[in-house]
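REQUEST ID: PR-0412
SUBMITTED BY: lab tech R.K.
PRIORITY: routine
TASK: structure prediction, single protein chain
INPUT:
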Amino acid sequence: MTAKFVLMAPPGAPAVPSVDVLEGWAAALRSGHDDLDVVIAVTDEDVLDQLGDADAAYGVLPQGWHAPRLRWLQAPMANPPLGYFTPELAAHPVVVTNMRGVYNDHIATHVMAFLLAFARGLPHYAHQQRVRKYRGGVAPVLHLADSTVLFIGAGGVAHQAARYLQPWGPRVVAVDARPETTSGGAIDAVFRAEELEAQLPLSDAVVMTVPHTPESERMLGRRHFELMKPTAVFINIGRGQTVVLDDLVDALEAGELAGAGLDVFDQEPLPPEHRVWALPNVLITPHVAMVGPDIEQRRFELIAENCRRLLAGEPLRYVVADKVLGF
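STATUS: complete
OUTPUT:
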């Protein structure tokens, strides 16, 4: 029996590759599976029409979708944005998978780059370099071997980064909404989300990795930064909407934190007039933590593997456990 797989690419859909890329994926999937009917839908009208008898789909569902046969939906992102998991999608029996495992090593490497930069005071010396000042004071050192690194969110990125951190010797802990399912590995301890405020004063570096959900929106504000050590650094490679950026800047300007490494922001692109740009103890990257030379190939390989599993009746990879929560 043939299964129909719709690659959705309407204009403006977030994180969906170009039609040229999708055509390459479609050709490869067709050649690898005689029993897979792969179609590309490039307008909302085409998507709505094709979903009517689809068994599986990749992309972002448009408003008004109806897919009574849909068994699997592959989200094109690791953490789909707020609004992806609509009440209609949450109520539908379709299994949703995301791309969260595709980027773990790249994002964990980005975390390490931020941590090591602050460990040796590189933002301070980079500022001195820009102003051509050879002697401008010695930057404080974050000695990782004597430090505690706290991850907010104990998913794949946190576990990968914890493995990368092992040679440096810090204590690595995390808080998570599901501590019973995220413990183990190179993370020394995973605490309940309610214990975040107790862990913040004990940590020398805090790394935000949580997705953007109604519960996580603006979850970190000024009172959380006030709880942190003035020598601590804050890193966000999750979603910008989980942090009140102005509160973070206020804390940095007040000397309540030693620095911050930010890859995501509540507004992207980050406005050029925002005062965070001017802070000498902040490292800014433009939402590129997941970038690597093989990302499109990795995305395709995950889709191809989940197509194989769907046809074979096997469990899919990177299933979203709770479509209401969105992760």
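NOTES: The chain has a mean pLDDT of 95.
REVIEWED BY: pending
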